[in-house]
Amino acid sequence: MAHLERKLQEHLGTSYAIQSELGGGGMSRVFVADDVALGRKVVVKVLNPTLAATVSVQRFEREIMMIAKLNHPNIVPVLSAGQVDGLPYFIMPYIDGESLRGRIMRGPLSVRETVGILKDVMRALAYAHSVGIVHRDIKPDNILLSGAAAVVTDFGVAKAVSAARERGFQQQPGQSITGIGISLGTPQYMAPEQAAADPDADHRVDLYAIGIVAYEMLVGSPPFHGRTPQSLLAAQLTELPPPLPSRRYDVPVALSDLVMRCLEKDPADRPRIATELLRVLESPEAISGPVAATPEATSRRRWQFWMTSLTTALGVAALGGLILWSLWPQPASEAANGLSTAPEEIVVRVPAAAAIGQGSEELAGAMTASITTALVRAGVRVVADTTPGARMAALYVETTVQRAGTRARAQVRLFRAAPDSSLWADQLDFTITDSFTAQDSIAARVTRAVLDGSARLRAP
Catalytic residue positions? Predict the structure, then answer.
């Protein structure tokens, strides 16, 4: 640890004097230094060695310098960038105050305080999105409170790392591609399309993340608090967060509806652009309008929405000859084997240990996310392995990925919770460069097995 600090000080020379280390998150180590010439404090963030090993330093620097062009009062600017001992770093002004994370730890915020912070953040997002830059890692740790203003830091760093990793892999063929195609971010605030590693994910991932942050400010904890990273990703893909009015009763309708719109799973159902949110936040109704409906009424509306969606899905399935509630025709012999009813829900297991070989854990997670998305789109109720009562579900889906160099093998099976016996299984060999195609193929096979009743047959 002291080695890096010493090397950094030698590299910075007399221009900056390192004072202390603040620690850092998953992507960087953070040092506070004095800018000797200008008499101010700065923050020096050095990329985590694990990430640095997979990036092109030159590409990272170019990406960071593009971000440095952002000039907005609610965005912490990048002053300079470079590398030390092979590790990329960048320098930003030191913000005297506290993070939004620290403020939330003292308890939920008032409606007025929440709206004030959200307006500042949305101004930053609206500006950055207008010039084509997406943050990709909005969370309370990256929102700093200084006086009466909120500013956003680490803008676009996750995107810079992601871009540099891809280019780094292309330039160094022998290098691990762990995480290639897997979006960087924080699972607790990650949009479904990020969790599914959708290459077409756009600025609306920031709008989903700010919805989570707003929810946390008002309630004191995010919607899916206390779960493992794997189960968090599954929840972001498949679970509706508890309605905000069920967690807090004094939130105005305008604010509550805005937050819940940001948390829609389909990006098309969220606000289109950040300025839409800003217009609502700047209206008097966001602070002093009528309070949101009772939790019972809100839950009823959500239930009606889902029932309507399910009815539509069933109608489409019926037109194609697939009726969801009669997926498993029941000969008399099947009842004796415990196959007398169609599954009410399917549990998709997160691949906690179902990965063999370096870099296979991320691939297994991506496979699981693709399967979950395909099943949900087909109208099947999917629950996470950690959901209370999930062990009573009729069917489980489990994915294992093995990797050797650039080749990989995905194995998937359907089995009963009790007894634990395989009902259907399949396998797919693929190369890493075709991982997206492999994810789609495995997801389609599992969905077909569920919808056409193949799970009734034991694998040979």
Answer: 137
